[in-house]
Amino acid sequence: MRKVSEKDYRKFIMWAKDNTANCVYPCSIAEGIQSGDIYVDDADVETVFFWHYCGFGYISGKPSDEFLNDIYFRMISDHIGRRLVLITSDDIVKDFFCDKEVLLDSRLEYSYPSHKYISEIDINDFRIEQIDEDNLSRIKGRIIPSFSWESPDQFLKEGIGYIAVDQERVCAVAFSAAVSSDEIDIGVETHEDYRRKGLAAILAGRMCERILEIGKRPVWAHSISNTGSMNTALKCGFVQDKINTVIRKRNSD
């Protein structure tokens, strides 16, 4: 498996767009919007592996067992220093990993065929702010811009997002976790003290409005067991599109 030079990333945009599991994360790398690595099998490319900064990996093409073994090594190795969570809809990939020392899970993917207004009737006690250089550093948690953007400057240049503020405390966030020329994947997180108040849906609704305004498509995905994320997606007007398989190292988050 050979690593591609960053100057050649754009040669793999069509491979990214043809990915059967997801396009926005592979395209975000190939189009040079977000950080990540691209690997190919050999000089006569039949398989391309996109490894996003956040750790999500996607395979386009027809992977050989040797190619998949290289990915498996990166997934389970303690020396790589970077997580790898493989997301796929390919039965060949799933069959290869089914007897390996990994965990397999299901991931719901959503599309956004129509716009649905999100009522802000319950937001009176909170202030909504767009994420900027003044408030970005105040956002704490796991699924926040630093999850998928290599630097604050990169996010502020290419990303968008909103926060809900209680006095001066950031209590919820919705942001562009992945950005391509066509789509934006929305990430959300609410502080445990402020859950079940509808804040995630309000902020995600704002994100959908903004994404549509700039001529792109909102997308959404989550682990099949994450009913909170499912409820937020449905409130915002998303519809379930397909189910992918998630493959990751045991005892990883």
The main sheet comes to: 12 strands, mixed
- By DSSP, the count of extended strands is 12
CATH homology superfamily of the largest domain: Gcn5-related N-acetyltransferase (GNAT)
Could you say how many structural domains there are in total?
2
* Rg from alpha-carbon coordinates: 18 Å
Task: Return the CATH topology of the largest domain.
Answer: Aminopeptidase
SSE order, one letter for each helix or strand: EHHEEEHEHEEHHEEEHEHE
Beta fraction = 25-35%
- Envelope shape: globular
- How far apart, in Å, are the first and last alpha carbons? 26 Å
**Could you tell me the mean pLDDT?**
93
Give the strand order, joined by hyphens, for the main sheet. 1-2-3-4-5-12-6-11-10-9-8-7
- Structural class call reads alpha+beta
Q: What is the level-2 CATH architecture name of the largest domain?
A: 3-Layer(aba) Sandwich
